[in-house]
Automatic annotation (TrEMBL):
<dbReference type="Pfam" id="PF13416">
    <property type="entry name" value="SBP_bac_8"/>
</dbReference>
<dbReference type="InterPro" id="IPR006059">
    <property type="entry name" value="SBP"/>
</dbReference>
<keyword id="KW-0813">Transport</keyword>
<dbReference type="InterPro" id="IPR006311">
    <property type="entry name" value="TAT_signal"/>
</dbReference>
<comment type="similarity">
    <text>Belongs to the bacterial solute-binding protein 1 family.</text>
</comment>
<dbReference type="GO" id="GO:0030313">
    <property type="term" value="C:cell envelope"/>
</dbReference>
<protein>
    <submittedName>
        <fullName>Multiple sugar transport system substrate-binding protein</fullName>
    </submittedName>
</protein>
<keyword id="KW-0732">Signal</keyword>
<dbReference type="InterPro" id="IPR050490">
    <property type="entry name" value="Bact_solute-bd_prot1"/>
</dbReference>
<keyword id="KW-0762">Sugar transport</keyword>
Amino acid sequence: MTPNAASHSSGPSRRSFLASTAVATAAVAGGMPLLAACGGSDGGSRDGTTSGKDAKKLLPAYVASNVVTPDIPSKNGSAVGFTGKLDLAGLKTSVPKKLGKGNKVTVMSPFWGSPPKDGNAYYTSMNDLIGVDVVWQNQDGNTYDQKLGAVLASSEVPDVVVVPGWNMTGKIPSAIIGKFADLGPYLSGDAVKDYPNLAAIPTDAWQRSIFGGKLRGLPMPSSYVTGIVPLYRQDIFEKEGYEVPRSCDEFMALAKDATNARAKRWACLDMKWTAFNAFGVLSGNEKSLGWNEVDGKLVYRIETEEYLEALEWTRKLFAAGVVHPDAKLGKSNATDPGPKFAAGEFLIYNQDSSQWWSRTAEQATQNPDFKIWGMDIFGHDGGAPTLWAQNPAGIFAFINKKASEAVIRDVLAVANVTAAPYGTKEYMATNYGVEGTHYTVKDGVPTKTDQGNIDVMNAYVMVASPAATIAHPDFPEVAKGQVEWQQRMGAVTRKPAFYGMQITEPARYTNLSNDFEQLEDDVVRGRKKISDVQQAVSDWKSKGGDKLRDWYREILDENGSAAG
């Protein structure tokens, strides 16, 4: 088992700080795939939607990295994949010359777990590699939004502040525009070529880093393919002769066949997220992604027939008694489903794709027959599904606008190392630390030591990242499966009208649709009716939804649609 193995595959927060199962469960199971990352004040609200010709002037030139060739190249918006064993002797160098000039740089970043002591071997070795004295101001990730608001409202802003997309609510978006530096002079166009690993970050991720009409963020890129996978017990399917369903009717038939309450076996947990994908419902991941143009009219996800149909189908699963009792009580997103999944109490659940690997690694020694796999998302009627793209970056690092040019250059030197691709010395240093101290390698598989699990946590990885990458040298078949799943799903993924745009809704609309997630959960469990949703949609329209539509229409008219 390799704790914190490299899997940077998808969605907000999908980086190595999520690789610890406890954190993954807390963050992803806590509903993060449905958290809205928009909000904010009227100040500068439309400036962040720079696109088209204006954006092209701001964006860094894209220069693909040729330092390492992935085993599976990106296709249809997928991550790149690596399926080989790790050869330490064969690691490439992507930063041949130390770019840092020795300045002290303070970085505030969210941290899940107990931060290591200052001056630990990981921090020391990274600072030496980069040539910069990075001083970490780690803050509790679970209450980060409160700390962020307080710091950005003060005059004491660190040199670098990391802001996850799900924390961009309230006044934080306008503070980003007011407090952080324009990186355009250092990175726009050919200027980025001074930092080759930053030049290899996909253009879509840089587009997401435009705030207030300026390139301000250093992004953590992610695949735009949905990160929510219907995961299933492939070993039990094979043993029982179950076929993977290809429609909602087939899923229901399988679920009834597989459920035996007396034997403590149910088919699934709450399948709402998969239902949304099967019925082609616009994304609930971020408010701006929930809008799209239909027959010339802007429509929000909750107004569509598909939304109601997905909820009704999920309700039928609960009503049929095929859903595990934990999910009926609403526990499926509050507790770790791993032990009961491993025990075979249920066979299918939808969750972040990172669990494909983490469940495999968890069970490898204690349950050798256990095999988890990802089910292709099916169209509800048996045809191909219509999936909707997620945004191509979800976490950003910003540099204080009061920072000197020397400090800005040193922060970019840090980012150029942390964005190094898999298979390089810089990647191993960033993600694993010092060989012998923080990790060992046996049969081409790196494994963190106890010290590595203390020191090498979510720090440097938060400054900037390479293009989305999936690599599991311990379970290469899982890495291959994850990337190929993304490629197949990417082939049926469309971009909605506001894909890739950084949009901050006016504060008066911030809480407009907040109650829908709870309403959805009540409906699928039979506590509320579809008619209650229809009434809530009607209320949403009259309380500001129609005005919000007009506001989005202006943005669309000014910037054009990103739909594709």
